[in-house]
Amino acid sequence: xxxxxxxxxxxxxxxxxxxxxxxxxxxxxxxxxxxxxxxxxxxxxxxxxxxxxxxxxxxxxxxxxxxxxxxxxxxxxxxxxxxxxxxxxxxxxxxxxxxxxxxxxxxxxxxxxxxxxxxxxxxxxxxxxxxxxxxxxxxxxxxxxxxxxxxxxxxx
Length: 156
What we know:
This protein is of the alpha/beta class. It has a single domain, classed as Rossmann fold, CATH 3.40.50.2300. 31% of the residues lie in helices and 13% in strands. The chain contains 4 helices and 4 strands. The chain has a 4-stranded parallel beta sheet. Strand 1, helix 1 and strand 2 form a beta-alpha-beta unit. Helix 1 (27-39) crosses helix 4 (120-140) and helix 2 (58-65) crosses helix 4 (120-140). The radius of gyration is 15 Å and the shape is globular. The termini are far apart. Mean pLDDT is 86; it is low at 1-9.
């Protein structure tokens, strides 16, 4: 059987992507929202944290609202082993050794600044970097970004 990870899965199969950061309150939330938006249902997207915060960073919520993505109901989720095992691609963002490793999984480490404590101006820069990486990931999965209505395509 061919490796379906690089192409996003076999016929009719939706690839699964898991974004992981320490608090699941900033980077991983933005990445999950952007990928969900661009994939338009063609990718199963999850995010989690190795030590989840109590709430999503308000500056992250504000920066994402600027591009039409609502994170007001999002909340940090704990990292579960079954989420890692189910994922085709696990993207870590600064969780280091706290992220579980499973042989045979595709891991990417996105070295991005932590938006915690940053003003919305800095969060916008982080959002733009995540946006570019998410679009690249879609290309790697063999999918083109298909914005579903208003969203990041209008932002810079």
